[in-house]
Specification:
Distance between the termini: 30 Å
Oligomer: single chain
CATH topology: Aminopeptidase
Largest sheet: 3 strands, antiparallel
Order of helices and strands: EEHEHEE
Number of helices: 2
Strand order of the largest sheet: 3-5-4
CATH superfamily: Gcn5-related N-acetyltransferase (GNAT)
Helix content: 10-25%
């Protein structure tokens, strides 16, 4: 497995691609699947939270930044900065 996507109504909750698999369009294809899944039973914007380094990827795919925050992963490490995004 080189990548996966998860979604629930209104939100793409996870998208991951192994670094070795980046740059061949797999992320875009998985994101389209995630958006389609997030649209099921939902008529508003599709939201996601992304790491700052992924912001440009999502912008290229039609998402816009709507806010910033921090995510604490619960493993005792430092919280990471995230960007909240949405797709209309």
């Amino acid at each position: 497995m080189v990548g996966f996507v998860d979604a629930e109504p209104g939100e793409v909750t996870r998208l991951f691609i192994l670094p070795e698999a980046a740059g061949v369009g797999l992320g875009r294809r998985l994101l389209k699947i995630g958006i389609a899944q997030a649209r099921m039973g939902h008529s508003g914007p599709i939201r996601l939270e992304a790491t700052i380094n992924a912001e440009g990827f999502y912008q290229k795919c039609g998402f816009r930044s709507v806010g910033r925050g921090r995510f604490s992963h619960g493993l005792g490490g430092e919280p990471i900065e995230i960007v909240r995004m949405e797709f209309l």
